[in-house]
């Protein structure tokens, strides 16, 4: 039987109290999906609300020269237009080999505080499955508590979109919190690339995280290796 991976997308489409659209970020879905699909992995897509999960339009423009992203955009739209409700996956961790949270600013506003998502993550972790995320995807992990009431990220190496990158993106004041700061506050051992926007992938046992869009390929490869696909 092919390995099974559950991808989770944000359902949130607005940047804070602005009218700026947000959601999930194109390469952070397309690149890991490409790696895992080509390895024969079966991938299921979920989101908090189910149905269509909003794609951040700025990521289409930013990656218009990325062949994998553009092919994914053209051929795979059914994946994000018909997501399953994340609540359907409570109690289903045993059916999967890994859980992966796609980035984009959306997760900062919904998945960071989504109790159903927190439950799914804790179940995957407690059953020894891979838990992974890229860029702002680790926002889904930052507040998760395990059965012993400790934070999932406590004393574990982890990465995600850095404060410096958020500042350079001009979005520090729009965010409900800063991901790097919150990961550290909840006990994570935060690591990052030598320079902003460079690739950084952290593998801490079953916890796999990537810093930014440049890290999406690497996260896909790390998941592939971890599930022996």
Which runs of at least 5 residues are low in confidence (pLDDT < 50)?
none
The count of DSSP E runs of length 2 or more, i.e. the number of strands, is 9
Helix-strand string: EHEHHHEEHHEEHHEEEH
- Helicity level: 25-40%
Rg over alpha carbons: 16 Å
| Physical arrangement of strands within the biggest beta sheet | 3-2-1-4-5-9-8
Q: What portion of residues belong to β-strands?
A: 5-15%
Average pLDDT rating: 98
Reported for the largest beta sheet, the result is: 7 strands, mixed
Number of helices: 9
Shape: globular
End-to-end gap: 11 Å
Q: Supply the helix-strand structural class.
A: alpha/beta
Q: How would you portray this structure in words?
A:
The chain is α/β, with parallel strands linked by helices and 229 residues long. The chain has 9 helices and 9 strands. The strands form 2 sheets. It has a 7-stranded mixed beta sheet. Strands 6-7 form a two-stranded parallel ribbon.
């Amino acid at each position: 039987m092919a390995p099974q991976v559950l991808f989770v997308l944000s359902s949130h489409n607005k940047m804070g109290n602005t009218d700026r659209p947000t959601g999930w970020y194109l390469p952070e879905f397309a690149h890991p999906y490409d790696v895992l699909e080509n390895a024969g992995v079966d991938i299921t897509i979920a989101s908090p609300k189910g149905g269509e999960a909003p794609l951040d339009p700025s990521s289409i423009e930013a990656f218009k020269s990325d062949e994998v992203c553009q092919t994914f955009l053209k051929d795979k739209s059914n994946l994000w237009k018909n997501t399953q409700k994340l609540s359907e996956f409570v109690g289903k961790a045993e059916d999967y080999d890994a859980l992966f949270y796609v980035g984009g600013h959306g997760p900062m506003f919904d998945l960071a505080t989504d109790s159903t998502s927190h439950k799914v993550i804790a179940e995957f972790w407690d059953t020894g499955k891979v838990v992974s995320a890229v860029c702002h995807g680790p926002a889904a992990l930052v507040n998760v508590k395990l059965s012993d009431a400790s934070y999932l990220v406590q004393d574990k190496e982890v990465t995600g979109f850095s404060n410096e990158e958020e500042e350079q993106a001009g979005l520090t004041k729009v965010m409900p919190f800063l991901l790097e700061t919150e990961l550290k506050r909840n006990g994570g051992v935060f690591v990052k690339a030598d320079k902003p926007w460079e690739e950084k992938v952290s593998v801490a046992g079953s916890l796999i995280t990537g810093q930014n869009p440049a890290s999406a390929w690497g996260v896909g490869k790390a998941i592939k290796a971890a599930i022996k696909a």
